[in-house]
């Protein structure tokens, strides 16, 4: 097991930003101008593959040229604000994260996969919607302070410490309703999710992944039969990992086909129960917030479909998403 560092290496120029980020696991800051938003919308519509449906990050695309061009453009446009707010960082990767309208565009509760050695470094997302966010159109929900609950190694093959309370935990996550061009800088270890986009319009987000300038990539993999209940395997990855990794959309639970194995590490596979949630976090009743936001959407659909069959299916899918596990 590892310990988090007592003090995170500084990445924000402004001490207040650094303090809020360390305390809560996220901080909100103005990021894109209206012109920059327009440029990025044009870039997305020019570049994106035609077959995108549901929830679609450009990192899932098999088209590496698309991933690479999206990365270059997002970093080019974001440079002004990144330089304004951040110091001593390396910018690793820019991606579009898109939610097309529809019930299949939700993202379940998770922490992002580990990409760095968190005993020394922090992986940070600069997550910026190009539209005003509402609960209906795929806002992000976070559990403030959850980034420091347990030191974790994360990846699709590794159980999450909140798996035993996967349904209950949703009701503790808070919506972050930022406006178009406002950034949520968040620690990749914070617990978060986003409901489906039930509006009629596409929700485009840019996500720029940054970390300290001296960080090296790490990924982690667990195979119960091989590693048992107290160990997992670490891999060193090179700086092009996000552009070249081919297992995001597919085979994500398999042993990484790229990178250099660093051997086994000890891990205690933490887990929590309902009482832990009740004792540590105020309730947001997120499921009710989302369900209350839905009827308007349902009414729209009824008008379009002249019947309730489709809306029932949508609602059922939405329920399934949150009760999936
Ligand atoms: O864009 C979103 O709604 C959430 C994306 C997310 O959490 C992820 O891709 O890991
Ligand atoms: Fe995420």
Output the CATH topology.
Jelly Rolls
Low-confidence stretches: 299-325
Helix/strand order:
HEHEHEEEEHEEEEEHEHEHHH
Q: How helix-rich are the residues, as a percent range?
A: 25-40%
Provide the CATH superfamily: q2cbj1_9rhob like domain
How many domains in all? 1
Q: Kindly name the structural category.
A: alpha+beta
Strand order of the largest sheet: 1-8-5-10-3-2
**N→C terminal distance:** 27 Å
CATH architectural grouping: Sandwich
Shape: globular
What's the total count of β strands?
A: 13
- The CATH class, by name, is Mainly Beta
Biggest sheet layout: 6 strands, antiparallel
- Annotation field: number of helices: 9
Instruction: Work out the radius of gyration.
Output: 19 Å
Average the pLDDT over all residues and give the rounded result. 87
Please give a quick description of this structure.
This protein is of the alpha+beta class and 325 residues long. The protein has 9 helices and 13 strands.
């Amino acid at each position: 097991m590892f310990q988090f560092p007592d003090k995170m290496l500084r990445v924000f120029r402004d001490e207040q930003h650094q303090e809020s980020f360390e305390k809560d696991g996220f901080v909100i800051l103005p990021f894109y101008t209206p012109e920059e938003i327009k440029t990025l919308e044009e870039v997305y519509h020019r570049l994106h593959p035609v077959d995108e449906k549901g929830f679609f990050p450009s990192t899932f695309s098999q088209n590496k040229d698309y991933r690479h061009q999206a990365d270059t453009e997002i970093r080019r446009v974001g440079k002004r604000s990144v330089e304004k707010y951040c110091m001593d960082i390396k910018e690793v990767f820019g991606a579009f994260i898109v939610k097309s309208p529809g019930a299949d565009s939700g993202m379940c509760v998770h922490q992002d996969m580990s990409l760095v050695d968190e005993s020394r470094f922090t992986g940070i997302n600069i997550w910026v919607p190009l539209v005003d966010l509402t609960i209906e159109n795929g806002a992000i929900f976070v559990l403030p302070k959850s980034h420091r609950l347990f030191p974790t190694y994360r990846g699709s093959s590794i159980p999450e410490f909140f798996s035993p309370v996967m349904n209950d935990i949703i009701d503790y996550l808070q919506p972050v309703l930022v406006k178009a061009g406002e950034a949520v800088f968040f620690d990749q270890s914070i617990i978060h999710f986003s409901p489906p986009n039930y509006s009629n319009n596409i929700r485009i987000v840019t996500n720029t992944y940054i970390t300290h300038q001296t960080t090296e990539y790490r990924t982690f993999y667990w195979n119960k039969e091989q590693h048992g209940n107290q160990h997992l395997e670490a891999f060193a990855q090179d700086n092009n990992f996000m552009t070249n990794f081919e297992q995001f959309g597919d085979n994500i639970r398999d042993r990484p086909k790229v990178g250099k194995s660093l051997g086994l590490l000890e891990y205690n596979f933490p887990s929590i129960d309902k009482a832990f949630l009740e004792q540590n976090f105020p309730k947001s009743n997120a499921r009710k917030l989302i369900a209350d936001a839905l009827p308007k959407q349902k009414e729209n659909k009824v008008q379009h479909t002249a019947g309730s069959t489709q809306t029932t299916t949508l609602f059922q899918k939405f329920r399934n998403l949150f009760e999936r596990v």
